[in-house]
Design brief:
The structure holds 3 protein chains of 3 kinds. Chain A has 2 domains: 31 residues, no CATH class; 229 residues, MetI-like fold (Orthogonal Bundle), CATH 1.10.3720. Helices cover 74% and strands 0% of the residues of chain A. Chain A contains 13 helices and no strands. Helix content of chain B is 47%, strand content 14%. Chain B is built from 19 helices and 11 strands. In chain B, helix 3 runs antiparallel to helix 15 and helix 18 packs antiparallel against helix 19. Chain B folds into 2 domains: 167 residues, D-Maltodextrin-Binding Protein, domain 2; 207 residues, D-Maltodextrin-Binding Protein, domain 2, CATH 3.40.190.10. Chain C is mostly helical. Chain C has 2 domains: 45 residues, no CATH class; 218 residues, MetI-like (MetI-like fold), CATH 1.10.3720. In chain C, helix 2 crosses helix 13, helix 3 packs across helix 7 and helix 7 packs antiparallel against helix 10. The longest helix of chain C has 31 residues. Chain C is globular, with a radius of gyration of 23 Å. The chains are: A mainly alpha, B alpha/beta, C mainly alpha. Chains in contact: A-B, A-C, B-C.
Chain lengths: 306, 443, 266
């Protein structure tokens, strides 16, 4: 019995070996480096001597925890964190609904579903540069199609990307457009792997389509749902390219200034690599906490097998 | 606890890998580097023709796309005259350039020669990442002195300009004709420009009179046109809050929100400012002379240029890119020869000129008169007249940050979120708290 | 009926921007800024495409990108499913801890780890090598996570039965688990191909040799000089999505596999 345990552990390690190697070299090591840089005033304008002479590096650049202290005192952190969280809480639910819709449409076995599958994927492969050009036009207050449609329904449009209150919702809209095919495809894969037997059993029990959806589809889809929620929260906390291309310079009143944009700008434009690294660890902590909570919550609602 | 152990194990693996790799690296130096060391030693007795081969790694951004072809021709000229030199050119788009440069510098793989723009130069020079060209036997008298000055920091010359461009007033002649207005002249004032702009604006709902971007450099220069400044007289403190600055900002914002001769961001929609001009719906635009090739190709109406209007005085500004030499290069002298050649040699600048690739940064009558002879625009004289009124922004290491703070607040002001007075107050507060002016060089 | 209205309007929303890209790419320069916008170019032209294919190393870079994307996708699928298999089906202490650690790798923005990664790769002497990018796929937290979620739904009874029949872990992995994950692997394959195909930060700094540049690197080089030439930009964007689109169409038949094979397990 003990032997079998050891054999299993060795086997598992063998299967995990490439991943562990890659993880150590390309994730852990860079993270350690950035954690160390976050305790320094290194500017990115000099060679990073950390690898060869860590003590010398700290003698020259070490500043202890002062970046962290400065970050927590800065108004910038709370503003960018607030904007980032605003994006997360609006984007994630909207995207989930849209993506689940896409997934459900794609599973319908009807004529033309193959074509739809291809069409829905188009925004995913469109680059943000092209996507932003289109969306800036679509959201433009005077000539834009979004306001034109709102007008038909009788709602007065807004200034969207030029307004302090509506710039972020505009970015959420564009992001949902771009990502719903991506996550929709994952839902599609999840829906496809549900055993038809469960539906047959439910039908025999006399369950209607709504009951089937609630009793079979949702629980069986929960592993995928969990995955999509975790990934989309992690990704959206790191929102960046769409903000850069749609509202360069932080948007009206800094309303679309987000965490990763600040990290990027401070690292590569202001040459404050130390500060930027510290900021990225603050972001890490936020992401970690939110993911941790999700991981704990999953025990309540994710079913892996019936 | 378990997690901690797992983390430590992973870290240990990672560290040992890191150590292995760095150990193996020393023996693995690229051949070019070891070659360069000998080249330098041999340089003492350089009178002989037998020069040791040298490789110059050269990174730049301004010569990407089509311009890379011309840059290569310029490099070929140099290597033909100096057969012992090999130049390894790498071109990047501007958006990625500084990111990859930081990565290379961090890894100790900085290119021997690289390009910096005016905005980033002070950060590199001020932090001691460049090597000076003083005392390298380089003749800097051929350069336009204003452009040359842009690459000097605390009195030390760290590089040479490779191109040079300034900002002028470009106008749509057809729209002036339609509005029955006389074309701009070089003694125009703000009022003249605004009154013409209003006439043109009145032509059609979709036609606008005037455009200038609400950016740091535009604001800096327009403030100077009104005799104002961002800085105190001694240059040691910010002084955003002055009557001149307030008047200037009000002028810049009013043309959008009050007279609306300049489109608001909403009216511009997804269009760029150049697009608006090219579409024939804009009377005047204040922009750089690098727009000439684009406008020549895309405008199907008559257009010309003039010196920008001033207020209490004239002021114009310029941009310059320069080539610099890395601090740690072992071939600084070769590098200095090379960058001087491709930026100021007669044949090399001729290639640049023929390609209509900005303005060569040299005071060569022949080159200058050739530049003036090209059309459109007909009045290229204005490009040179504008040079008489150049103002230069402060050379400070945190220049990009200053630019961002000012630019962001200007946009908020244009969007009506803050009044011009509040805007200046915010600039003053933010800049004073995050920018250290004493770390600057010359100003 | 409801289905068609929903599916149809969604398709329109999704396609409008794409249509805009196509129409812009075929516009002549003068038509780019016309008001009202020309949805269908009056005088369509291939000028932008001709210019694009004239860019030095353009075609070569497509080949490089294809090579990197294909080899990295293959490597990622193999290594990630191996890891996910170990984390779900081989019982050993530490499954949860390792998985949690893996997920943290997704939490640090690449903007900040990019410089250390570049330094590590330079020190390993891996610059200017297309094959070096495969190393990068040894570990992919996203892929492991996605496959883990799929494998968790496979009944352990299936594995136990195979073990009793005397199958070893490799056989179980290749002959039972992998076929069951067909749909997820196909989906992941598309996503991974796309992300490698579009990746440009590392290729930009690692492949300094022009002949080894990837497509996004060449395209981004163009974008700073030609940012006002929308026809060229859109033509570039179009050309770069064609291979992914073709691959997607080819692979989408595979999406079903997971279900049909999965039916056996009940």
């Amino acid at each position: 019995m003990r032997n079998a345990k050891i054999r299993n552990a060795v086997m598992a390690f063998t299967f995990l070996l490439p991943s562990l190697l890659g993880f150590a070299v390309f994730s852990i090591l860079p993270m350690l480096v950035s954690a160390t840089v976050s305790l320094s005033d290194w500017d990115g304008l000099h060679e990073l001597t950390l690898f060869d002479d860590a003590a010398g590096f700290f003698r020259e650049y070490g500043v202890g925890l002062s970046h962290y202290a400065a970050i927590f005192r800065s108004a910038e952190l709370w503003q960018t964190l607030g904007n980032t969280l605003e994006f997360v809480v609006t984007y994630v639910p909207l995207m989930l609904i849209a993506a689940l819709g896409v997934g459900l449409i794609l599973t319908q076995k009807r004529r033309g579903s193959g074509v739809l599958r291809a069409l829905y994927y188009i925004p995913v492969i469109t680059s943000w540069v092209a996507g932003a050009l289109v969306w800036r036009w679509a959201l433009s207050p005077e000539y834009g199609i979004v306001n034109a449609i709102l007008d038909i329904v009788g709602i007065r449009g807004t200034m969207w990307l030029q307004s302090e209150d509506w710039a972020m919702p505009g970015i959420v809209l564009a992001s949902v457009w771009k990502d719903m095919g991506y996550f929709g495809l994952m839902f599609f894969a999840g829906l496809r792997s549900i055993d038809q037997g469960y539906y047959e059993a439910a039908q025999i029990d006399g369950a209607g389509r709504v009951r089937q959806f609630i009793n079979v589809t949702l629980p069986m889809l929960s592993p995928t749902m969990f995955f999509v929620i975790i990934i989309s929260i992690i990704n959206s906390l790191q929102i960046f390219p769409q903000v850069m291309v749609m509202t360069p310079g932080g948007g009206p009143g800094g309303s679309t200034m987000v965490m990763v944009e600040r990290i990027y700008t401070r690292a590569f434009s202001y040459y404050q690599m130390g500060y930027a690294s510290a900021l990225s660890w603050v972001l890490f902590a936020v992401i970690f906490i939110m993911t941790f909570v999700q991981m704990k919550l999953q025990e309540g609602w994710v079913t892996y097998s019936v | 606890m378990k997690k901690l152990i797992a983390l430590l194990c992973a870290a240990a693996i990672a560290m040992s890998l890191g150590a292995c790799s760095s150990g193996g690296n020393a023996a693995n130096l690229p051949a070019s580097v070891s070659g360069q060391t000998t080249a330098n030693n041999g340089g003492e007795a350089a009178t002989t023709d037998e020069k040791t081969p040298v490789t110059i790694n050269f990174d730049q951004f301004s010569g990407s796309g089509d311009n890379e072809t011309y840059l290569k021709q310029m490099i070929d000229l140099y290597t033909a005259a100096n057969p012992h030199v090999t130049v390894k050119l790498q071109s990047y788009g501007y958006d990625d350039y500084f990111k990859q440069l930081s990565a290379k510098v961090a890894a100790g793989k900085a290119p021997d020669v690289f390009e910096l723009n005016y905005e980033n130069f002070a950060a590199y020079a001020g932090n001691g990442s460049l090597s000076t060209i003083d005392g390298m036997g380089v003749d800097t008298s051929v350069y336009n002195q204003m452009a040359l000055q842009a690459f000097s920091f605390s009195g030390v010359q760290y590089g040479v300009p490779n191109s040079f461009s300034n900002v002028v007033l470009i106008y749509n002649k057809d729209l002036f004709d339609q509005a029955g207005e006389a074309y701009p002249t070089d003694d125009w004032k703000w009022e003249d420009a605004m009154s013409a702009a209003e006439k043109i604006r009145a032509l059609d709902d979709n036609i606008f009179g005037y455009y200038h971007s609400l950016s740091f450099s535009e604001f800096y220069k327009t403030v100077a046109q009104n005799g104002g400044s961002f800085l105190s007289v001694d240059g040691k403190a910010f002084a955003f809050n002055s009557p001149q600055n307030l008047e200037t900002l009000t002028y810049m914002v009013d043309m959008q929100t009050k007279t609306n001769v300049m489109p608001t961001a909403a009216q511009l929609g997804a269009m760029g400012d150049w697009d608006l001009f090219k579409s024939g719906r804009l009377g005047m635009i204040v922009t750089g002379i690098w727009a000439f090739p684009d406008f020549t190709r895309d405008c199907d109406f008559a257009w010309d240029v003039e010196v920008e209007p001033g207020h209490t005085q004239k002021a114009t500004h310029f941009f310059s890119n320069g080539y610099v030499i890395a601090k740690d290069t072992s071939i600084a002298e070769e590098a200095a020869q090379f960058i001087t050649f491709i930026s100021s040699n007669r044949q090399a600048t001729q290639i640049r000129l023929d390609a209509a690739w900005e303005l060569p940064p040299i005071n060569d009558e022949e080159i200058v008169s050739q530049y003036k002879a090209q059309t459109p625009p007909a009045n290229r004289e204005a490009v040179f007249k504008s040079l008489d009124y150049l103002v230069t922004p402060p050379v400070i290491t945190q220049f990009v940050e200053l630019q961002d703070i000012v630019g962001r607040n200007l946009l908020d002001c244009a969007n009506g979120l803050v009044t011009p007075q509040q805007c200046l107050d915010k600039m003053q507060e933010e800049c004073s708290s995050s920018i250290d002016l004493t770390a600057g060089g010359t100003s | 009926m409801f289905y068609w209205i929903g599916a149809g309007s969604l398709a329109v929303v999704v396609c409008v921007p794409f249509f805009f890209m196509i129409s812009t790419a075929f516009k002549s320069r003068g038509a780019l800024m016309n008001i009202p916008m020309e949805w269908i170019p009056k005088e369509p032209t291939m000028e932008a495409f001709a210019k694009l294919f004239d860019v030095p190393y353009f075609i070569r870079s497509m080949g490089n990108s294809l090579y990197i994307a294909a080899s990295c996708t293959a490597a990622q699928l193999l290594f990630a499913s191996m890891a996910a298999f170990a984390l779900t089906k081989i019982p050993f202490k530490g499954q949860k801890v390792i998985f949690s650690l893996f997920v943290t790798a997704l939490m640090i923005p690449v903007q900040i780890t990019f410089i250390p990664i570049f330094i590590i790769l330079t020190r390993l002497g891996l610059t200017n090598s297309l094959n070096a990018f495969i190393l990068f796929q040894f570990f992919n937290a996203f892929a492991i996570f996605m496959l883990r979620q799929r494998m968790l739904t496979i009944h352990d009874a299936l594995i136990e039965a195979a073990l009793i029949d005397g199958a070893d872990w490799w056989r179980i992995f290749f002959q039972i688990v992998i076929p069951l994950c067909g749909g997820t692997l196909a989906t992941l394959g598309i996503l991974s191909f796309m992300s490698v195909w579009n990746d440009y930060l590392l290729p930009l700094v690692l492949l300094s040799d022009r002949a080894k540049a990837t497509l996004p690197v060449i395209l981004s080089g163009l974008s700073s000089q030609y940012k006002y030439q929308y026809d060229l930009m859109m033509a570039g964007a179009l050309v770069s999505i064609v291979p992914i689109f073709v691959l997607y169409i080819c692979v989408q038949g595979q999406f079903k596999e997971g279900m049909t094979v999965g039916g056996v397990k009940g």
